[in-house]
Every structure is written in structure tokens, then in C-alpha cells.
Amino acid sequence: MTTATERYREARDHLLSLRGDHTRAVAEFRWPDVGPTFNWAVDWFDVIARGNDRSALVIVEEDGTSQIRSFAELAGRSDQVAAWLASQGVAKGDPVLLMLGNQVELWDCMLAVMKLGAVIMPTTTAAGPADLADRIARGGARHVVTNPDQCAKFDEVPGGYSRIAVGEVPGWADLRAAYELDAEPTPHPGTAPADRLLLYFTSGTTSRPKLVEHTQVSYPVGHLATMFWLGLRPGDVHLNISSPGWAKHAWSCFFSPWIAEATVFIYNYTRFDAAALLGQLRTNRVTTFCAPPTVWRMLINADLSGGPGSLREVIGAGEPLNPEVIDQVAKAWGLTLRDGYGQTEMTAAVGNTPGSVLKPGSMGRPLPGQPVVLVDPITGQRTDEEGEICFDLSVHPLSLMTGYQGDPERNAEAMAGGWYHTGDAASIDADGYITYVGRTDDVFKASDFKISPFELESVLIEHPAVVEAAVVPAPDELRLAVPKAYLMLAPGHAPDADTARSILAYAREHLQPWQRVRRIEFAELPKTISGKIRRVELRSREEQVANGEITPIGQEWRDDMFPELKG
Predict the structure, then answer these.
(1) What angle, 0 to 180 degrees and rounded to 10, lies between the N-to-C axes of helices 3-17 and 223-230?
(2) Four-residue CA torsion sign, 291, 297, 299, 300
(3) Could you read off the pLDDT of 353-374 as tens digits, one per residue?
(4) Tag placement on the chain: N or C end, fewer CB within 10 Å?
(5) Which residues span the domain enclosing 93?
(6) What are phi and psi of 136, to 5 degrees?
């Protein structure tokens, strides 16, 4: 066992021992010094995996078929893939674009590329030729690994990269040949902590996707904090709803569970079925479950009377949770649905941790090792009220990216003033609990009052007719701007005057007068390929409509169209 492994395990075990004691964990935890060389796949995964027959990965398909791989099997399989990739020219430092679904080969390749000291570029299968051309050019990809049904996309993508498919495709090497090799354990590639490991593209809610660079320690070691937030323990079975290619998949389907020596459980489906998911949770004795708020909203509309099965921890991620959702889960299952916060640029940074008091609407408190502060955007100084969520760079946060690759201007902006700027606004109370307000570029003023779109959206989606909501400022001659909501309706609700009246009345009843939603429009919400709403597009649309440049998508309903709402 290497010194790096020993120090890593000691830090992990210390956090496990402090489960339920957030205050002590924050006070006592220190990031481990892993020494001059570190490779998570060799120094951690292989150490816990060799000779370990416990299930490391369970993948269940919609038809009930499953694949189960033990820790020992994955260690051996990734050795085979590493040896074969090396024979195909994959070398230390080479960026490898990895575009696979939730299949065993994805985990094999993640470990194998890491073992070679190469750089992983996770990519969603939703990416098209234009996206791929941009990613390969900016990321400098030397190799591509994908499935046969994706290969045609690369016909239009220039570049001198090698082509590898999980299957037989003319002109592509077949990765399946790797599993015929008699491979020895992969030797340590000699990677240093500061060496590159991951290149992630963000979802691009406001502009062209950013290219985020992570090191051999920023995610592999930084996710110790994520493990603490999730509440993972050795022997757990962890299910996370997330698509491969995005950072959250690596958070909760790769690093955090295996840091804890837990099983990664995957349920593949083509169309979301709440009852089927609940059945899988119970049948497979899932102990910890993380899902975005959209999934949780669909679950609470299903029948939760069957109970939580073996669930101990339930977590929301991706966007802030609405208090109503938390309440419904508590009533049905007696479990506390916990929220948290992080970005592709970092690991989990803020969270409601196991055993902590939950404050309605709050994301929780800074996690161990995470130097989270709020900074006044005007003064650039730390504040104890409302401000931008930032990292204090004087503390040298280990879990933070090195920067945006190839973008010095954006880096200078993100790291200005001694802070890493998240672009997210929040408030903090006397106990250190942080409540999300919204993206700094989404918050706007109406009648000189500051409006948080998230607060208004949280109220609107509690109306039975509303599935999703996006609030943006609509130019107004009197008030300069008024809150307008673009809404997606639930099945069975018509986009007509009666529905509009009901929603506007509900908003009027449940919001402060200065927060009042005065206009609504029923429409499909524009989203990134990762599913996040592009409010910037809706804001621009409103400005163009006000200027007479374009016409509205559909019928706009205003509160002054319903005299009965006056008063």
C-alpha cells in the first residue's frame, strides 16, 4: 500500500467517522497530501478492488436484464482496456473523447484512460457533429471512443484523431478486442497531482460551453466532500439519476461511491416511469438515491405508499429543491430529502449533510474543505447577507478546477479579486445556512425590487397545471420590467384563458405584491443538451418582442386581462 493510498484512506475514514457532525467535520477535515505522484485508478481503485468480489457496478435495463461486475472484475477489465488502448496509440497526456452510454465499457474506459495517465473528455451522446467538432478542436482530442450508432456523427468532424468503437464499424478499431487480452496490472503512470485528468464541457446556459480542466486530485480527492454530503458508507448501493458526459455523472456514478467502497447502481430506461423506478429502488435494496428536482417532482406525483425500501439517504441535485417536494417525501417516507450545491468547476461545495437540521429553502452549509463565502458584487468584499457564491482563493481550494482551458479572459474574470466567482447569488443566515437566489445574470429588478426567478418559479410549479416554469423580465413602460413566466403545462390542462386565470390568481395569492407574476405564456422551454433552461434566450426574446422585432410564440396572458384579479 502506497503512502498516497494510506493518506487518502485516512482522510476518507475521518470523514466517515464524523458522519452526522457537520461542525466537527468542517473544523477537523484537511485535504490529504498525496505526495509527488497520484493516480486515483491505481492508488485507490485498484487497491480496494484487487481480490474484492463485492459488486462495484450493477446495471439494470428496462426489460429487467442486468449486468453485475465486481470490484475485482473491473480492475481486471480496465487493465485489459488500458493495455489495448496503449496498443492503439493512447499515451500519457493524450485527451480521449469518451462518448458512451450507461454501459460497462464506460466504467472500464474511465479507469483505463486514467491508468494510462491520459486525459478523459466525457461527452454526452446527445452531442451532434457541430458540438463534436468544437469539442475535438478546443479539447485537442487525440482519440475518440464511442458506440457504433454514434460513429456516423464523426464523418463530418475534422481532425487527426484515432477512431475506436465498441463494436464492428468500417474504419474504426473495435474495443471489444481488449477483452481477449491476458493483461497484467497496469503500472503507475507517474502522474503528478497537478497533471490534467478531466476536460469537461459545461452545459452552456448563457453562452458557448466552457471547457473546464480538472487535475489528478481536484475531482478524485475533491469528491471526498461529495461523499460526505451524499452520506455514503462502505457497502451502500447508490443510485444517481444522471446522463453520462456531464460532471454530475462522475460525481455520483464514479468517484463518490467508489471512494466510499459502495456499489454504483444504474437503471437504464428510454422513457421515465416513476412506478418502475420505485420498483427498482426497492427490489435492488438501494440505500442512497440522488436525483434532480424534476425526477423528485414526478416521484411525489406517483404512489409513494409502498415505502422507501432500504433507502437511508435521499438527495436532490442539479437545481435547488422546492420546499414542497421535501415536505411530500418526508410525509410519505419519513426521510429528509437533502439539497446541495456545486458546479462542473468544483465538487459539492454546499450541502445539507446527514443529521443536520434542515432549514426550508436552504441548500445547507459549506462542506468540509470548501472555502465558500458570499461576496458583495459591488464592493468585492465578503458579506454576511446576500451576495455571489465564491471560493476564497487564498485557501487554495483543492476541489476547484485549474481554469477554463484556452480562455484567459474568462479565467481572469472568474478568478478576479482573489475569489472564484460562481455566477450564482445566494443569501446566508446567522447559522451559516445558504439559500440560493439565482444566477447573478438571471436576477432582475421590477419596480425597483430585486426579483429572484427561482423564488417565483418555486411557487408556480406548485400549481397543479404547471410542470415547469421559467421567469424572466418583460419590458414594461410603467415599471421598466415585470415578471413574466413561460410555462409548460401538465397533461390534461389546456393553454387557455381559464388555465391562465387560475395560475395568475394562484401566483397572486402566494407571492408578495412586488413579486407578482403579471404575464404568462405557454410554450416549450428552450434548454441546453443537459436539460437546463436557457433563460437568457427567453430574456432576449422578450426584448425583441418589445422592440417589435419578432412576434410572441403563442398567446400571452396578462393579469390586466382578468378584471376579477384586481384588488
Answers:
(1) 30
(2) positive
(3) 999 999 988 999 999 999 999 9
(4) C
(5) 72-217
(6) -65, -40
Judge residue 324's burial from the number of C-beta atoms within 10 Å of its C-beta, 0-12 exposed, 13-18 middle, 19 or more buried.
Answer: middle
pLDDT at 448: 60
Burial 95-115 (b: 16+ CB within 10 A, else e): bbbbbbbbbbbbbbbbbbbbb
Asked if the structure places residue 317 within a domain, the reply is no
Between 323-333 and 293-300, two packed helices, what is the crossing angle to 10 degrees? 50
Instruction: Count the domains in the chain.
Output: 2
Sheet hosting strand 480-489, strand order edge to edge: 466-476, 480-489, 519-522, 556-558
Calculate ∠ Cα 129-204-538, nearest 5°: 110
Contact 212, 200 (CB under 8 A): yes
Q: What is the pLDDT of residues 65-112, one digit of tens each?
A: 999 999 999 999 999 999 999 999 999 999 999 999 999 999 999 999
H or E element: which one contains 127?
Answer: none
Name the domain boundary from 174, 201, 217.
217
CB of 75 closer than 8 Å to CB of 45: yes
Task: From 217, 237, 263, give the residue that closes a domain.
Answer: 217
Task: Give the three cell numbers for residue 26.
Answer: 468542517
Q: Are 457 and 471 in contact (CB under 8 A)?
A: yes
Q: What is the largest CA-CA distance in the chain?
A: 79
With a cut of 70, which residues of the chain have pLDDT below it?
A: 1-2, 203-207, 441, 447-448, 478, 529-530, 567
93, part of any domain = yes
Q: CATH number of the domain at 98, please.
A: 3.40.50.980
Tell me whether residue 184 is in a domain.
Answer: yes
Q: From the centroid of its chain, how far is CA 201?
A: 12
Q: Is 51 exposed, middle or buried (0-12, 13-18, 19+ CB in 10 A)?
A: exposed
State how far the Cα of 48 lies from the Cα of 317, in Å rounded to an integer. 28
Cell of 407: 480562455
CATH number, domain containing residue 468: 3.30.300.30
pTM listed for this prediction: 0.84
Work out the burial of residue 88: count CB atoms within 10 Å of its CB; fewer than 13 is exposed, 13-18 middle, 19 or more buried: middle
Instruction: For residue 207, tell me if it sits in a domain.
Output: yes
